[in-house]
Amino acid sequence: MKKQILIIGAGFGGMWSALSSTRLLDMHGRNDVEVTVLAPEAVLGVRPRYYEQDVHQMQSPLGPLFDAVGVNFIKGMAQAIDVAGKKVSYTDAHGANASINYDKLVLATGSRVVRPGSVPGVEHAFDVDLMAEATRLEQHIKALAQQPESAMRNTVVIAGGGFTGIETATEMPARLRAALGADAPIKVIIVDRGEKVGAALGQNISPSIIEATETLGVEWVVNASVAAVDANGVTLADGRRIDARTVVWTVGVRASSLTEQIPGERDAYGRLHVDRNLKVIGQNDIFATGDTAYAATDDEGHYALMTCQHAIALGRSAGNNVAADLLGEAPTPYSQAKYVTCLDLGAWGAVYTEGWDRQVKLIKEEAKQLKQQINSVWIYPPVAERAAALAAADPMIPVVA
User: Fold this and answer.
1) 40: how many CB neighbours lie within 10 A of its CB?
2) 5 - beta bridge partners?
3) How many C-alpha atoms does 355 have within 13 Å on its Cβ side?
4) Which end of the chain has the lower number of beta carbons within 10 A, N or C?
5) Burial of residue 369 (number of CB atoms within 10 Å: 0-12, 13-18, 19+)
6) Pairing relation of β-strands 104-107 and 241-243?
7) Residues facing 388 on adjacent strands
8) What start and end residues bound the annotated signal peptide (predicted)?
């Protein structure tokens, strides 16, 4: 009977884990180990692009890729992890309960935006976290033209001025004008707790954010937070009111709740502490990757962020090392010393930085061209051809997206 490497999740971390573990097994000529991915769909949702319009196009099928490299796929939703029994229970494609045993497990179930229960009416807000929610927002924006003309209809509030909030806000003027007309008197407002514009991304990148948002007419309400949401707008913590038919929530990310079923230390975002090989500390047979892993990127005190940039490299490392662990081979410690940021700023362009201190290297059109290359090519899966796909999963390949 074949041994089983089970990977839960088919996002960036899960997909690359499957390819990388298959690559190492292939290198050692082992056909006595099966690599299985358990996920609701054999589809990679290109989540970093969900702030854009035409969101239904932001996905890539994984079935042909998995078939080409010999990865087994199970369509289902993981429900429970029995660590002692080395078994995962799930709901299958028909809604029935099922389970699968594993020899080694990789948790790659990602993260979610968490809407705080302390904010009344937060259910009225949209988000761009999952395909279904991003699609709901897109349908809502397109339907605004059917509502009576008003300032409220033409106003969008973005709750949160971090990376996702800024990209969503700076793309929004073009999306609103496409729906309401080129001359529509639109208003896009970012509400952020930071004391200055773009504070979450640091002082080096802030000038580009300021210039871009001013050019695009995107307003900031800083040193503020949303205290309540309703169908007609938001109320801020200081009592101010902003009327808006559209509110987009972009703050409060937390790792998948399945991390809570694995004994181990977790960080403030719910991510499991892992060693440099991405094995969950205190567990012999469980690895974590992507947004479920609190992983050191280097020896300088930096840790992976919840980004696809880190998830791709984490996936390659986790897959390689879970297979190495099963085979008794030496692992390849995870390392990702280079960190870059490429922030989309709508029609103004983009800003590209390098290093954890975000040293600006490109702005406007040059950076925009790079961002489009990242979004449309670099982060997509490899071609569904065995040799090329496995070669692309080498954990030593640097990731710069």
Assistant:
1) 14
2) 35, 104
3) 8
4) N
5) middle
6) unpaired
7) none
8) none
- Per residue in 101-133, pLDDT tens? 999 999 999 999 999 999 999 999 999 999 999
Distance CA 186, CA 172 (A): 10
Provide the token pair at 297. Answer: 């990127």
Whole-number pLDDT of residue 398:
80
Q: What are the extents of the domains in the chain?
A: 3-113+253-337, 122-249
Tokens coding 82: 């029995």
12 to each of 84, 181, 330, 368, how far by Cα in Å? 28, 37, 24, 23
122-249 CATH fold? FAD/NAD(P)-binding domain (3.50.50)
Q: What is the pLDDT of residues 208-225, one digit of tens each?
A: 999 999 999 999 999 999
Backbone dihedral region for residue 379 (phi beyond 0: left; psi -120 to 50: alpha; all else: beta)? alpha
pTM above the 0.90 mark? yes
